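hey team, just a heads up i'm posting the complex here instead of the shared drive bc the drive is being weird again. everything in one block, sequence lines first with there labels, then the predicted structure for the whole assembly after. its four chains so it's a bit long, scroll down
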Amino acid sequence: MSRVNTPQRFINLRQAGSLPDGAIELIARRFAVLSEPARLRLVHALFDAEKSVNALAEETGSSQPNTSRHLQALASVGVVSRRREGPQSLYSICDPSIYKLCDLVCGSIEKQLARQVGVFNPDVRLGAQPRRP
Amino acid sequence: MSRVNTPQRFINLRQAGSLPDGAIELIARRFAVLSEPARLRLVHALFDAEKSVNALAEETGSSQPNTSRHLQALASVGVVSRRREGPQSLYSICDPSIYKLCDLVCGSIEKQLARQVGVFNPDVRLGAQPRRP
DNA sequence: GACTAATATGCGTACATGAGCATATGTGTA
DNA sequence: TACACATATGCTCATGTACGCATATTAGTC
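-- predicted structure starts here --
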């Protein structure tokens, strides 16, 4: 085994210190790639299956060049990966944490919206609290 | 109880469909706010305690006006909240999901780095796999 | 090699946004 | 009211980047 076997994190935004040089920039870059609607649509479209650039362009309503570039951006941070099959490039999700990430953010936004709606109509809840039905 | 009591999500990037108008933009906005190193440093600094604008400016090495603006951006998406106490504004984390979010992203980045390092030196692992030591 | 389909890339433009500076606003005190 | 401290906000400039367009590159087929 290796000399390092503790499950401790080197990069940990939650802990004081624990932030090597450039770590913040890495994290920021990851979020930045996910901060574009066009790229989120691609991620959304890729959740069910591996797809080609043209298929994704059509499904997301974006141009082929833009789709290609956005996919490269997603690949540059390891969210998706590329596989050549004949003349086409097939992209697929390769970072499993993206699923939880999206769930977290979507859940958080729903809770927030539910709170805002609740201010006007306390009877309406968007079903954002999955605990104790 | 309300008429809506199923724990199902209205906004769910993982599920086909399930994306109301503007949902993608909401999610993108959330990520965008987290995609700035200066703001991540603020979040990092706020994890241990509620702090004032000046204290945060000093701790993160940013100017007072910029710190104020960044805090407003974080507040605009509900990550932090503001509380007045005398002449100063005290900011604090108000979205608990941000903790898990940071853990997820940091963990994902570490795994990725470990994989990259492993290519050159297969003996080194950054301890990013907490399961089965 | 010539041709076609799929994908990637170079380039110019438009737009969003972060930083610095000065200054306005707000809050408590004498 | 005058003052001091803390915070928020116009304003301008510089930079990053998404888009559209044209075109280069790659892979397969004849």
